[in-house]
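Q: For a teaching handout, I want to show students what a protein-ligand complex looks like in token form. Below are the inputs, and the small molecule is NAP. Please produce the holo structure.
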Amino acid sequence: MPSVNSYAAYQAKEALKPYQFERREPGPHDVMIDILYCGVCHSDLHQVRDEWGGATFPMVPGHEIVGKVSQVGSEVKKFKVGDSVGVGCMVDSCQECASCGEGLEQYCEKGFVGTYNSKERDGKTSTQGGYSTKIVVKEDFVLKISPRLPLDKAAPLLCAGITTYSPLRHWKVGPGSKVAVMGLGGLGHMAVKLAAAMGAEVTVISSSNKKKEDAHRLGATQYVLGSEDETFKKYNRYFDLIINTVSASLDLNRFLGLVKRDGAMVLLGIPERPEPIHPFPLVMGRRSLAGSLIGGIKETQEMLDFCAEKGVASDIELIPVQKINEAYERMLKGDVRYRFVIDIASLK
Ligand code: NAP
Ligand code: ZN
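A: Here is the structure, written as tokens, with NAP included.
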């Protein structure tokens, strides 16, 4: 069985350390990938600290995986050795339920198999993620990466990209839409780039003044502070859609007032502790408060192709895996411009 070098959390809230384990031999429908880059998502941090409950250890995080195919099973049709490919947050699903049938595997009614901190469909084998040298994945859950995309900057598209692309499409964002993005981190900066590429007017709502210039460079026309009264006066009932990527608890009631009648706020961030929502701001404008989870495989491919065509990729800081614990600390302070990506060569 292929032996793999990785970095893992051995217990909740402990620093990640080197870890060696074995991947399965590729089956007839599997693709083996030599991982080149893996993005660092705030979800990695929530999970290694067991903030969502139910975490299992040792845990190798990482679900923004890009690499080259190194081996294919006998029945594999879509990929050959040497192809540039990606893997996101899912590696399997039941493929029988209504959601899977509609290409919405992320909402699989039996529960999708997460790339890490999850169990394979046998209910026993733990999955392990992309802070590692190789991964073996069923071909249906592998994505093609266009040669037009730089591989390191493409890695974050596999989670931050699709997680923001999917609600922008679902809520039909296009020219004339007024979109606000709360939180300018990994997801937030992709939301700004993608909404701007779709033709929307984009406003960033941040917790500090530090990212203003960057926000304009990324495609936002306005930049406001969530802590200032002026924001709530000036943009009262203004936005068609708010994409909320904030990873910490926040009183959302006030922010809902910024949404137009019949508009929506979509929650992408999943903080450890929820905040109460009052019905008033929803009732008074027939506003919706919704959530959205990553995106299906078909839509992830569509997003990657859209990014290749529009020249959209992530702004990254490439790090060796040995800096991962420091990177988590910086992420907690909102000090990421705008995604850490691990250079997997540092694990070899
Ligand atoms: P990130 O890079 O750390 O960005 C989060 C941003 O939120 C920060 O840059 C900061 O932006 C803002 N923020 C953080 N703490 C804040 C606070 N106390 N008050 C106000 N603003 C604060 O994280 P990410 O990787 O983009 O992930 C964001 C969230 O989405 C996480 O909870 C993650 O688990 C979740 N997520 C969900 C899905 C899904 O499918 N729904 C997928 C991936 C990730 P400013 O500096 O601009 O204020
Ligand atoms: Zn993620």
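A: Two things your students might notice: Residues 41-43, 46, 159-160, 163, 183-188, 206-208, 211, 245-248, 250, 268-270, 292-294, 331, 334, 336 surround NAP (ligand 1) (CB under 6 Å). The domain at 3-159+314-347 is CATH 3.90.180.10 (Quinone Oxidoreductase; Chain A, domain 1).
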